[in-house]
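Chain and conformation:
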Amino acid sequence: MFVPEAHLKDSIIEILLTEEQSISKLHRELCSRGGKIHKLVLTGYLQSLSDMGILKEKSIPPSKVYSVAAAHTRNIYGIVGDTVSMCSPKRDRDPMVLYTLQNLFHRHVFRFEIARSGANVCRDAVEADRKSLQETRKLVSKQGIKVPPNEPAYTLADEHAGERYANIYSSILEDIVLEITSSIALRKSTKQTLLTP
């Protein structure tokens, strides 16, 4: 269900990822999803998203047409997977993806989320117990993400993971922030941090 206050931006991006749309067409689509937003309010909101670089605005008289800016078409899983691949030795990529996602989300990570990041479930992964799995499923489902039936979720069992991955995790977060804000060129050095054996 569409909740304007909480999910307007996400709903707009989701719709515009399929095709660019005029304000009128986008307004009809949001209303068909149960949203109640005045067209003038939507117009101002779209302009703000365009000013922030999240959307691209194009004039096709007599309308304006909006689409998602290239920097905002990637999801968190792809960004984490790509960044981990650049910053980690191959042998550490699978546990590093899990470590990064569990620390970003503060929860267990579903197998499909690990796969969407281009990784596999590593041997140090521990499957969530039934109660934790239900809580995680409920949380993710509330965000409109469909969780496949019988989908397991994991955390990293390695008790030394924090010590081992802390530096690389920090480097990954820096790279993610710079990438999603298109600010990588502002960095003085492009030296990548790798885990030590």
Summary: The chain is about 50% helix and 10% strand. Residues 76-186 form one domain. The first strand starts at residue 21 and ends at 22.
